[in-house]
Amino acid sequence: xxxxxxxxxxxxxxxxxxIGGGQAGLSMSHCLTRGGVDHLVLERGxxxxxxxxxxxxxxxxxxPNWQCALPGFGYDxxxxxxxxxxxxxVDYLRRYAESFRPPxxxxxxxxxxxxxxxxxxxxxxxxxTLTADQVVVATGxxxxxxxxxxxVRLPDxxxxxxxxxxxxxxxxxxxxxxxxxxxxSGCQIAEDLHLAGRTVHLATGSAPRVARRYRGRDVVDWLDxxxxxxxxxxxxxxxxxxxxxANHYVTGRDGGRDIDLRAFAAQGMRLHGRLAGIGAGTAAxxxxxxxxxxxxxxxxxxxxxxxxxxxxxxxxxxxxEARYVPVWEPADDGPTSVDLAVEGxxxxxxxxxxxxxxxxxxxxxxDGRGYPAxxxxxxSFPRLYFLGLPWQWTWGSGRFCGVAGDAEHLAERIAxxxxxxxxxxxxxxxxxxxxxxxxxxxxxxxRTVA
Length: 450
Description:
Layout: E1 13-19, H1 23-34, E2 39-43, H2 49-53, E3 69-70, E4 73-74, H3 86-100, E5 104-106, E6 110-115, E7 121-125, E8 128-137, E9 144-145, E10 159-162, E11 176-180, H4 184-195, E12 200-203, E13 213-214, E14 217-218, H5 219-225, H6 239-244, H7 261-266, E15 270-272, E16 275-279, E17 282-285, H8 289-314, E18 336-339, E19 345-350, E20 354-355, E21 374-375, E22 378-379, E23 384-386, H9 403-417, H10 427-430
Parallel strand pairs: 1-2, 1-8, 2-5, 8-23, 10-19, 11-12, 11-19, 12-15
Antiparallel strand pairs: 3-4, 6-7, 7-8, 9-20, 13-14, 16-17, 17-18, 21-22
């Protein structure tokens, strides 16, 4: 059933319905197609629209192209060590879909998912209600842009945009820009504005950084050799904390380089501590700038320590490299207050992340924080799965490099349960344990029923 046009899904039944048509949903569809499993993929927008419509113009991957390894479709370009630009990512996904023609329906939003009382799932959409024996939720973690409540206190004349709506410096009115947040988006957008000659005020946070290259290779190459990307979430003592950690900031721009906020400051960027409040035309910042910069540097240097240890332990021939020396230090670390008008700040870019919105899933699968309780994507509700979550199983679960393994695992689980009588009693609640179900000590999230 091709995308586009008007759809009537009322009364349609499929063995499997995949909700979400991004890289996770397409990967799942590829594995199901290869296994001959009847299914349908529902996408509320269009193919690759998240990459096309919610990324800025200069956006590029921060991981090398060789890590793009969707099921049956590895990177096929001429620059494996480069970093695909936004439009190249969109093209990669389109070519992936063309390679196996998934049963993708575009422009259909799922508004409710529930058990229909007959042993099937009822999937309510804007194009009618269909049913399925099994469902894979592949909507990703970046669903709802988060704006802090303090945003309402900004003066009316100041333009505000979330990172998902930022496109380029020319989109913003003339004047200085306050960027809030130093995760990957915040640092890269601050750099984008800085390189365009804009005066940038950057409110830092606790996100760590990582060097782009060290001792002759991309750090990603070293970490891959060291097995980091193959570590499963159950190898960590603090699995929940690992899932919630901010990504290290670095960039693939212009062939890849470090993002050094200290260097930006030496070039004129105004760095501040965490944004603490807004009122009476001023922005107040916490006194943690020095601590934020030092902490980010420590993480980067600790990764280099690990690489050094790896090289020494294996007797590898790698060039030596001098360690990082800070090029700028803040004059003090006390709280500061900036008069927005005096500084000429006319716009704010909120790089404050995204939240999940799973209210449409009317099934008891979430813990007290609203996170789906699962084991490798298989939830506590039989035949309901998630795919594409950060650290669902490995570091790459929510990325191009690791989603294939998760999709293949779920395809095996789906195939094992296909053709069996549906039973919507949750095993650990019914008192009739399923022998294929993980034991309590194998869970990677609390089994609390919301």
